[in-house]
Design brief:
This protein is an all-alpha fold and 287 residues long. It folds into 2 domains: 143 residues, no CATH class; 112 residues, no CATH class. The protein is 64% helix and 0% strand. α1 runs antiparallel to α13 and α10 crosses α13.
Length: 287
Amino acid sequence: MLDHPVVDVALGLMLLYSVLSLVASVVKEWVSTLFSLRAKNLRKGIGTLIGNDYGERLYGHPLVNTLAKGKKMPSYIGSDTFASALVDLLAQDEDGNLVVTMEDKAAELVDRVEDDSELKAPLRAMTHLGAEKVDDLRRQVAGWFDEGMNRVSGWYRRQTQLIIFAIGAVVAVSANASTVHVVQDLWRDDALRYEIAQKAVAAAGTASADSVQVADAILQSFPLGWEDEDPFRVRDDVQDWDASTWISHVFGWLFTAAAVSLGAPFWFDLLSQVAKLRGTGKRPDRG
């Protein structure tokens, strides 16, 4: 067990990042739902796989169209659904009549794809790799779609991480949650550091990151916020914001935003590990 001011400061920062990350995650979900980010990334991924022309036709297929909610595109399409809808599209003529069956040779279906389409090369490769019948090709298309969706998931993760970083930056500035100055205040105030470390240890004992409540009681324990009289005077010992003050605050805000972008689960797991290092310790007297 380790009872040291450095550990207490680290616990305080991890608790702060966990709470702010939860706030950012909630806002991110609102943004994602409002702008249909999952659905748009899925549509972009499908367009990359099969081309925009076939993508438009696929989204109009009954198997896919019924997954949409109103005018919104579906945010998820199963691999079997995708493969069945695509094969069905390729197997139909211009009048919608089925001209190729599941028992026909896969090459017959591939020949129906336009030569300049992005779809033709991967389908032809599948026939070379053992897809003899159309039904064999359908199963390989399903697997190919799953691999493509792994890439789409990567796009979405990077996009949401940037969104969370932007939200974290807004939260950091609006709450004046500068990592640099939070560390300074925790280091100078023994009683405050102890109080927040105790709350961090208590939070680490909960079941999951979702159990860390975004509560005023937690955030108000930290040296955050702006003074009403002068928003550019954070503490009594800082009368004017010179260049060094601006630089330290901007750096602190950006550091907080970067930490928030890592997500609440990351910080909660780390908080749980560090909390095990800390002993109970003696409560400092407030000067």
